[in-house]
Amino acid sequence: MAPSAAPQRIVIENAAIATVDAQDTEYASGYLVIADNRIESLGAGRAPEGLENVVRRIDATGHLVTPGLVNTHHHFYQWITRGLATDHNLFNWLVALYPTWARIDERMGRVAAQGSLAMMARGGVTTAMDHHYVYPKDGGDLSGAIIGAASEMGVRFTLARGSMDRSQKDGGLPPDFAVETLEGALAATEETVKKYHDASFDAMTQVAVAPCSPFSVSTELLKQGAELARRLGVRLHTHGSETVEEEKFCHELFGMGPTDYFESTGWLGEDVWMAHCVHMNDSDIAAFARTRTGVAHCPSSNARLAAGIARVPDMLKAGVPVGLGVDGTASNESGELHTELRNALLINRLNTQHREAALNARQALRLGTFGGAEVLGRATQIGSLEAGKLADLVLWKLDTLAHASIADPVTALVFGAAAPVTASFVNGKQIVEQNRLLTVDEDAIARDTRAEAQRLARIAAQG
Length: 463
Fold this sequence. Notes:
The protein has helices spanning 90-101, 106-121, 142-153, 182-196, 219-232, 244-254, 258-264, 282-291, 299-304, 312-318, 338-348, 361-375, 409-415, 442-461; strands spanning 9-18, 26-35, 38-44, 54-59, 63-67, 69-70, 125-132, 156-163, 205-211, 236-240, 272-276, 294-297, 322-324, 393-397, 421-426, 429-433, 436-437. The protein has 463 residues and is α/β, with parallel strands linked by helices. The strands form 3 sheets. Strands 1, 2, 3, 4, 5, 14, 15, 16 and 17 form a 9-stranded mixed beta sheet that branches. A 4-stranded parallel beta sheet has the order 6-7-8-9. Strands 10-11-12-13 form a 4-stranded parallel beta sheet. Strand 2 (26-35) and strand 3 form a beta hairpin. The termini are far apart.
């Protein structure tokens, strides 16, 4: 057997470091060594002498190094329908936009995924996910297009292969032509998992089973979807308890609230995470904590759609895993996760029960890093800066005018203006430099975005 090649090393020095490990270890001035795709060592002061095969040294003076941000909920296709239905609540917003979304095709899906991923990656996201649930009959290979876009950009990625089979004729919200059959959705989901899911430690692509929501899927799709996911050994994702209208819908149709309904269909467990979870009572939170069901908190989207303020402090206190989500860019037009650190902190302080004690800067950073990794089932691999973990990390520039008078770097990152990303690494490879993507042409994506948004609008107008 041929000896393995000696690892190539990148050394980062003179940086403030927030590890987000279990002890919240921080270094005012420290180093971090990347060996191939792993974090080899880190600590205070200068890097060890005598390191071999050092291919690059980075002087990170004036920077904060953190784990890469982890996005736990998104809908990439919405990138080409931004700025529409801006004064609607969730149900009215969905009814207004479903007819347009149901006409997307493979080309639109790929361009929308490129735009969504680019905005996140250039702002510090190293692990992204997409909950895609719109699969028109003649739309082409949408899952393949989305996964291809993530691979090209070099971002670690989870596709939550969604589905809808409850249309308007069955009491749901999507138009009849926008849904799949039960059998078709299950078969296509299984095929996607078998084709794309990678269960290895350093996997770049994973797949989850993700029927859309209680008001767009049948009970049977939820039940069989959960059985499918557990047979294949993958995670489960859906929307839950987003609005008071959803709660009313569940009581009227199923005779129980969303959490009880999910539990009755096999949708609570440590392999499950749900988006939003805004309207949760004490019993709901206790059920999530007992089963270790995760939550993707999407503060900007919840505000945009006037859904309410999720009880994040109570969830964290109870032991519920919580990460942050952008949500689709038709309900969060900026499409950026790093701004959600600040928004999560500020919006949760509007909660009249907790006020200024709701969240602090380090809790917000944890939501966006380790919390997200935990929700996606990857906390042993990413989400904190520790020896042996994958080298997914970000260098935030904090020595400019925007942050000059904020002494604490984590406070500067969370409370201050959006910090520039000097460098972002995924799996030990740099994908961002000076706030520009290295792997794709941002200007070309912008041009394609405009063209595909206009094409979709024309097609939708024709009915």
